[in-house]
Specification:
Mean pLDDT of chain A: 96
Largest sheet of chain B: 7 strands, mixed
Number of strands of chain B: 34
CATH architecture of the largest domain in chain B: 2-Layer Sandwich
CATH topology of the largest domain in chain B: Aldehyde Oxidoreductase, domain 4
Structural class of chain A: alpha+beta
Low-confidence stretches of chain A: none
CATH topology of the largest domain in chain A: Enolase-like, domain 1
Oligomer: heterodimer
Order of helices and strands of chain A: EHEHEEEHHHHHHHEEEEEEEHHH
CATH superfamily of the largest domain in chain B: Aldehyde oxidase/xanthine dehydrogenase, molybdopterin binding domain
Structural class of chain B: alpha+beta
Bound molecules: flavin-adenine dinucleotide, iron/sulfur cluster
Strand content of chain B: 15-25%
Low-confidence stretches of chain B: none
Largest sheet of chain A: 5 strands, antiparallel
Strand order of the largest sheet of chain A: 4-5-8-6-7
CATH architecture of the largest domain in chain A: 2-Layer Sandwich
CATH class of the largest domain in chain A: Alpha Beta
CATH superfamily of the largest domain in chain A: CO dehydrogenase flavoprotein, C-terminal domain
Number of helices of chain B: 19
Strand order of the largest sheet of chain B: 3-5-1-12-9-10-11
Helix content of chain A: 25-40%
Chain lengths: ~325, ~800
């Protein structure tokens, strides 16, 4: 059995305590929520924090509320997100994405905040220490070069969260709190196109809330490609959200791909093709065609990258097809 | 109440359910140390030096050993003694064991590994079979361990007149197939706990399927008399062939216990289990088959090339097995088999459920499907015409006792509607909607068959002794204890001994206690492999019990004043069949018997019939009997994504008499699970010499949601060789599953996927070929020019299928 490295554990009861602990311990500390991503990574020595600040005991980080838009506090579990009647009716894409994460056991522990902050993945990286040692280590951890793209100066590890593409497609925002204060940023700004520095937040900032605008008739859908019907990370995720005018023309559209780059990938061209159109077969085909072009999957996840790229088109078409029926 | 044939619970099921079963890793002894093994980070390298000082100096470390401490070579087969518990001069794959540390806790041992410095001189790794065939490359093993350079083993056998057979054929089909390597994926990681007493007795508790062979390997490598070594198989969380070799960590735990005088435990990580492997060999196959217009086979020529990985393991047997059982299903009058196993710098392959036979079965059953389609024959009716008959021999000298294959085919065809008029409807595209996705789906049904042995006819090492021994002891309180060396890996072999004793003595199963797999307490049974356990331990158990029963009957007859022949054991009593007023309680009868004969115990043993044919290599494939299975798979294929869903499996299995139908059904369902996984996703993949996915997340096997419903039919032939007519059930049902799925995919979309795993991207590629009007197929394009030796030509036995000369 793999063992966790030794660490010191703190269990704050409030956001304030949590961020103060973060400030106190600085770079030695990491936050942990459900631990379903972080603990396995620690066992494999991708992370060896001296201090862990557990967020599970922070009551104010739990729950979903409806007001001017929907607020989901970051510590809400994926199980709760997927079973929320509010989300199921207003933003079914998010409830679906949460439901498609891994297994029931992991959804019972894993949180939405943790899911949005999920470490990027790469099958040269998500391996035990001795495996990476045999490989010679890559730049994301302990090494110098990238094994997938040896000439590259950056890491191409893959954004593999199911919920992030949806939250971005729904034009969500996130509230970040640290001992230095708080700010609200667009969910799309939470991500950077870099496999190592993949988050656009400071290390000491906690995601406390995910803020979704009022649904206002938005249709949304999430499709996930993976080898098996459970357990597996997405090797492609397609989140699509549309708002239609009363005549059926598309007023706003966002299509976001997960699992094909280091951050959720917005298909701006596809979206543009949709605006002002009705969701016909032809329009869907054109949008799907435009969507798969920017996708540049590399050979660092399950399945072949050429297959994943081909599937981007099929899945975008199917996502839009599903929306045309909603 | 009859016990045999009743759907009873396993006798150890409560222990498993409440968590009381003790697996090796659950055990703990006072003063126990924890050990970890340092494994090679190089696929192929010479060891220049190993500096263990850093580890030795770490507080908490008690002992550090390297190959020099355990240099004696071992291996499961006497002809392949090519492993060392810790490598001395050379490492041969990433994961090969190099050094070991025993420490006060596992964390310290783990940390100490990082302080061991190994200097390697890298050698070019040999990763593919083609590289292994290239003689300009370094040899992985030197000298005696290989037939030639990196060719571990070569075999060539010819039975009957092959040329004449092909000359008689109206249609000859040649094709190549590839079956990918995959691993057992038992849920329990291997673990071993060793203890060495000051007076020189060594005890090892281990998750092993073969304590007897481990016993022998320990005696050899540790240079201890076998009489002072005790090997006990702990509760085992699945084996499937992955725990049938003696392993490095078992020897290392013992050595560390001997050096430190303290108990030492090693539990492997999942990654290490992937490195131990011994799983399914990747096999490239070339098949040439000749048939008459009505499909009757006239000749079969089969070539295999096995990627063996770094060590011999069971590889010699595996090589033979890729050729041995092609003949036991359909009548084949002329057969040539050429097989070769090569060494590569990857974890060693070995036996996995079906050992060496699922690969050729995959090729053969697809090949037959192609022939049937070409000749316009129904694949089911076609096969049924040429099924082997009871009490005959095959062209390669295997003895068929009973064969229920025809009935197996009938059962699955009837239940599934295979070959019916639904065909047209199946090939139409229809839409399906699951989780928001509207997909374009085509459905198909595919059929395939298979056969497997009920126990290897010969032991691993040459000897004349029994393959299985049983001691039965009857206590004055009425309890019966059965002692047998067999290991229950979840299949229920321990329960089976209890059922047999209960049936024979007419007592409650709960009054039987079974003690197994302990070299101090139990007589030798060779282990849980080759589907040998039910037939061999069952027969041994009966032979131990019957004389004992006679003693009890003698005593009872005396008391009841009736002839012993009129008495029988029933429901806890000894009853006179002619006058049921004359009866004795079981406990009364045994008291009388013990008074008359002394302590009531008996021994029994079993040795399979001698059946080897008159040629070298004939020892592999012989068996007391063969099981048969037929499978229909229903699949749906998404033609835009290439995703395949196995919707349903119908599987009929002739395992002889089902001693407990629930256990047989369990074996069928487990085999289907494994077969579907091998067909669709399981694969050992490497980048260079490095395993790409050594984890339960990344190595894909079916989850519960991917598992299709299974409808099982038991076809109960009454085999004369088995206890109460039983044959095997543990491995055979897997064999037809992968080819049935491949055939079903063809039925659905008209493309042939001639290799496993059948992944969505392979399907899309074949569909693209189909669209372009090219051969709608994905699979190996050619077979390398391999130099097989001159075949040994063997005259078929009298009662084998004969080639009738109809032409010229
Ligand atoms: C076998 C397996 C399969 C999986 N499959 C999937 C899958 O299919 N799809 C998928 O999306 N994920 C999958 N996951 C990953 C993971 O389970 C989920 O993403 C989960 O939602 C993570 O949430 P958590 O609360 O457990 O995160 P944690 O492990 O607690 O944290 C993850 C990261 O986020 C940071 N973090 C957590 N909460 C906050 C916060 N409030 N503010 C700032 N930083 C925070 C942590 O410091 C850490 O770096 C899988 C994991 C495993 C082990
Ligand atoms: S993309 Fe390259 S650098 Fe990043 S984790 Fe993978 S191999 Fe390492």
């Amino acid at each position: 059995m793999l063992r966790l490295p030794p660490f010191e554990y703190h269990a704050p009861r409030s956001i304030e305590q949590a961020v103060n602990l973060g400030a106190e311990h600085g770079t030695a500390a990491m936050f942990v929520a459900g631990g379903t991503d972080l603990y396995p990574n620690m066992k494999r020595r991708q992370f060896t924090p001296q201090v862990l600040i557990g967020l599970n005991g922070v009551e104010e980080l739990r729950g979903i509320s409806n007001g001017d838009g929907i607020t989901i506090r970051a510590g809400t579990t994926l199980h709760q997100v997927s079973n929320s009647p509010l989300l199921q009716t207003q933003y079914p894409a998010l409830a679906t994405a949460a439901k498609l994460v891994s297994t029931p056991q992991l959804r019972a522990m894993g949180t939405l905040g943790g899911n949005l902050c999920l470490d990027t993945r790469c099958n040269y990286y998500n391996q035990e220490f001795s495996w990476r040692q045999a490989l010679g280590f890559c730049m994301k951890k302990d090494g110098e070069i990238c094994m997938v793209a040896p000439g590259s100066s950056r890491c191409w590890a893959v954004s593999s969260t199911d919920c992030a593409p949806v939250v971005v497609a729904l034009e969500g925002r996130v509230r970040l709190v640290s001992a230095r204060g708080e700010r609200v940023i667009a969910a799309s700004d939470l991500y950077r196109d870099d496999g190592i520095e993949y988050l656009g937040k400071a290390r000491d900032e906690i995601v406390t809330e995910i803020l979704l605008p009022p649904a206002d008739g938005t249709k949304s859908v999430y499709l996930k490609l993976r080898r098996r019907d459970s357990f597996d990370f997405p090797i492609l995720g397609v989140a699509a959200a549309l708002r239609l005018a009363s005549n059926g023309e598309i007023e706003s559209a966002r299509i976001v791909l997960g699992g094909v780059g280091s951050r959720p990938l917005e298909c701006v061209d596809s979206a543009r093709l949709l605006i002002g159109q009705k969701l016909s077969h032809k329009v869907i085909g054109a949008a799907a065609e435009a969507a798969w072009r920017p996708a540049r999957p590399l050979d660092n996840t399950d399945s072949t990258h050429s297959y994943r790229k081909k599937m981007a088109r099929v899945y975008v078409a199917r996502a839009l097809g599903a929306l045309s029926e909603q | 109440m009859p016990v045999i044939g009743a759907p009873l619970a396993k006798i150890d099921s409560w222990d498993k359910v409440i968590g009381a079963a003790k697996y090796a890793d659950d055990m703990s002894l006072p003063r126990m140390l924890h050990a970890r093994i340092l494994r090679s980070t190089m696929p192929h390298a010479r060891i220049v030096s190993i500096d263990t000082r850093g580890a030795e100096e770490l507080p908490g470390v008690v002992a550090v050993i390297t190959g020099r401490d355990v240099p004696i070579e071992y291996g499961i087969l006497p002809s392949s003694q090519d492993e060392q518990a810790l490598c001395v001069d050379k490492v041969r794959f990433v994961g090969d064991a190099v050094a070991a540390v025993a420490a006060l806790d596992a964390e310290t041992a783990e940390r100490a590994l990082q302080l061991i410095h190994v200097e390697y001189e890298p050698l070019t790794p040999i990763v593919t079979m083609n590289e292994a065939l290239d003689e300009t490359r370094d040899a992985i093993h030197t000298g005696a361990h290989a037939d030639h350079h990196n060719i571990h083993k070569m075999v060539a056998l010819e039975f009957g007149d092959l040329d004449a057979g092909f000359a008689e054929a109206d249609y000859i089909l040649e094709d190549t197939y590839f079956y990918q390597g995959n691993t057992h994926l038992a849920l329990e990681n291997h673990a071993a706990l060793a203890s060495f007493s000051p007076d020189g007795h060594l005890t090892l508790w281990s998750s092993t399927q073969t304590p007897h062979y481990v016993h022998r390997a320990l005696a050899k490598t540790l240079e201890l008399p076998a009489s002072r070594i005790r090997v006990v198989a702990a509760a085992i969380g699945g084996g499937f062939g992955g725990k049938t070799d003696p392993f490095s960590h078992e020897i290392v735990a013992c050595k560390l216990a001997m050096l430190t005088g303290r108990p030492v435990k090693i539990t492997l990580t999942r990654q290490e289990v992937f490195y131990c492997h011994r799983g399914r060999h990747p096999v490239l196959m070339w098949v040439k088959m000749g048939v008459r217009q009505d499909g009757e086979p006239t000749a079969l020529h089969f070539r295999t090339l096995l990627d063996g990985g770094a060590y011999g393991s069971y590889g010699v047997a595996s090589t033979y097995y890729t050729g041995a059982l092609q003949t036991v299903t359909y009548k084949i009058p002329a057969y040539k088999f050429e097989g070769m196993r090569v060494f590569t710098n990857k974890p060693p392959c070995g036996p996995k459920r079906g050992h060496g036979t699922p690969q050729p079965r995959f090729a053969l059953e697809i090949h037959l499907d192609k022939i049937a389609r070409h000749l316009g024959l129904d694949p089911a009716a076609y096969r049924k015409q040429f099924i082997v008959e009871d009490k005959t021999k095959t062209v390669n000298h295997l003895t068929i006792t009973t064969c229920g294959l025809s009935e197996c085919i009938d059962r699955v065809v009837e239940a599934s509607g295979f070959g019916g008029e639904k065909r047209e409807a199946r090939s139409e595209i229809h839409e399906s909607k699951i989780e928001n996705q509207k997909s374009k789906i085509k459905n198909g049904l595919g059929l395939a068959c298979g056969s497997y042995l009920s126990g290897a006819g010969l032991p691993i090492y040459w000897n004349q002794m029994p393959h299985s021994g049983v001691i039965v002891k009857v206590d004055r309180g009425g309890g019966v204890a059965v002692f047998c060396g067999s290991t229950d890996i979840g299949q229920g072999s321990t329960s089976l001994l209890a059922y047999i004793a209960a049936e024979e003595f007419g007592i409650d199963v709960r009054d039987v206690r079974v003690i197994t797999a302990d070299t101090d307490l139990t007589p030798v049974d060779l282990g849980s492999y080759s589907s040998r356990v039910t037939v061999m331990t069952g027969n041994a158990c009966i032979s131990a019990i019957r004389p004992l029963k006679q003693k009890i009957l003698d005593a009872a007859a005396e008391k009841l004043l009736v002839p012993a022949e009129s008495l029988s054991f029933r429901d806890g009593e000894i009853i006179c069949e002619d006058d049921d007023a004359r009866r004795l309680k079981w406990t009364e009868a045994i008291a009388l018997a013990e008074a008359k004969h002394g302590t009531l115990s008996g021994t029994g043993s079993y040795k399979p019939p001698k059946r080897a044919g008159p040629y070298k290599g004939s020892g592999v494939g012989i068996s007391p009997s063969y099981s048969y299975a037929a499978c229909v798979a229903q699949v749906s294929v998404d033609i835009e994504t290439g995703q395949v869903r196995v919707e349903k499996i119908w599987l009929a299995h002739d395992g002889g008499r089902a001693l407990n139908p629930i256990l047989v059904e369990g074996q069928v369902e487990g085999s289907v699970y494994m077969g579907v996984g091998e067909a669709l996703m399981e694969e050992m993949t490497y980048r260079g010499g490095l395993h790409k996915a050594p984890s339960l997340l990344d190595y894909k096997s079916l989850t519960m949601r991917d598992m299709p419903p299974v409808e099982t039919f038991l076809v109960e032939t009454n085999d004369p060789e088995g206890p109460f007519g039983a044959k095997e059930a543990g491995q055979g049902p897997l064999l037809p599953v992968p080819p049935a799925i491949a055939n079903a995919i063809y039925d659905a979309i008209g493309v042939r996927i001639d290799e496993t795993p059948i992944t969505p991207d392979k399907i899309l590629k074949a569909l693209e070929e189909q669209e372009k009007g090219r051969a709608a197929r994905f699979g190996p394009k050619n077979f390398p020019a391999v130099k097989y030796p001159e075949p040994i030509r063997v005259e078929p036995p009298e009662d084998a299928p004969r080639l009738e000369r109809k032409k010229g």
